[in-house]
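[job 0412] stage=complex_fold ligand=nicotinamide-adenine-dinucleotide status=START
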Amino acid sequence: MLTVNVNFVSHAYPIHIGAGLLDRTELFAPYLKGSSVALITNATLEPLYAARLKAALAPLGKELIQIVLPDGEAYKNWETLNFIFTKLLEAHADRKTTLIALGGGVVGDITGFAAACYMRGVPFIQVPTTLLAQVDSSVGGKTGINHPLGKNMIGAFHQPQVVIADTALLRTLPLRELAAGLAEIIKAGAIADAGFFDWIETNIDALNRGDEAATAEAVHRACGIKAQVVAADEREQGVRALLNFGHTFGHAIEAGLGYGAWLHGEAVGCGMVMAATLSQQLGLIDSVTQARLKQLIAAAHLPTQAPPLGNERYLDLMRVDKKAEAGQINCILLKRLGAALVERVADHNLCAALTASVQP
Ligand code: NAD
Ligand code: MG
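[job 0412] stage=complex_fold status=DONE, emitting C-alpha cells
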C-alpha cells in the first residue's frame, strides 16, 4: 500500500492507494465514530462492489444505511441531493454518521456535498472507483452539484477523513474512462514534474493495459502532485489554477459539442495539446516539447485534434470559463515540461492556436 498525506492547515488526511484495499476493515475503522454509516453509491457500482465494502465494515458493528443513486452526470443535481437527505433523515442519521462515497467523481462530488450540508457537516470517506476520481476528484475537497445553468456551480469545500483508492477496482472500468483518467495523470506530470512525465512516456503501454504496479505508481505520483498543489492553495486563489492546464480549451470543447459527447478527460487531453501549441507559438516551448505532449496524449488513446466549432464560438465559450475575468481569457501555458504559468492571452493568439489545432 502507498500513502499520500494531504496536509491542509485545517485538516490533514491520508490517501491510501493499492490493490485490494476495499476489503481492509482496519483502513476504515479509525474514522467511523458514530453508531451508523451511510454507504452512498450508484446503480452500476452497487452490484459490483457494495457487498465487499459492507463485508469489510461488518466487524465494526455499525448500523448500515445504503443509498443507491442512478448512474450519470445528469443526476449530480439538487433532486438527487435531496434524495440523499431524505434517506439519511428517514434512517435517523445523526451528526456522527459517516458518509462513504463508493464511486467515480459524480458519486464523490455529491456525497461530499451532502456531507458538507447534512446537519451542517458530517464526516465522509472517499472510495474512488474511477482512475479520474482516484487521481483528481477525490483529492482537494471540492464537492458539489450541477445547476441547469452551469456545471459544478453549487458546492462547498469539505475534506474527507480518508481516501481509500483500491486500484484493483479499475479492472471493471470501461477503457474510455481509463483513458480519460490518464489525461489528468499526464497533466500532473506536464505542469509539475518532468521526471514523472518521462516515466509516463516509458510506461504508457502498461498504463493502457491497466498493469497493477504501473497504475498504483501513477496514481501515487499524480495524487502527490495534486495534494501538494491544493495544500499550498486550499481555497483556490493561486497555484491551484495550474491544475487547469488544458481545461480552458477542454471546457470549450465539452460545452461546444454538448456535455457528454466527449468525456471530460478526452477534452482535457486535446485541450493540453492546444495549450502546448499556443505555448509554442508564444515562444515559451520548442516544437519538440509540443510534439512530445501530443504523442503522449495520442498514445493514451485520447484525441489530439480539436472539433471544428469555429474560432469565434471557441472564444465565446472560453470567455464564460470560470478562469476568465471581465471577458479576458486566462490560459495555463507550459514554460517547459514540468512547469506551467497562468497568462492572459490576446484573442489573435488564441485564434492562431485554434486554427493550428482544429481538424482539417
Ligand atoms: P463518473 O463518476 O460518471 O464515472 C464514470 C462511469 O464509470 C459511470 O458510469 C460509473 O458508474 C462508472 N464506473 C465508475 N467506477 C467504475 C468501476 N470501477 N467499474 C465499472 N464502472 C465504473 O465519472 P468520473 O470521471 O469518475 O467523474 C466525473 C465527475 O467528477 C464530474 O462530475 C466532474 O465534475 C467531477 N470532478 C470533480 C473534481 C473535484 O475536484 N471535485 C475534479 C474533477 C472532476
Ligand atoms: Mg479536470
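The chain has two domains: 2-170, 176-356.
[job 0412] exit 0
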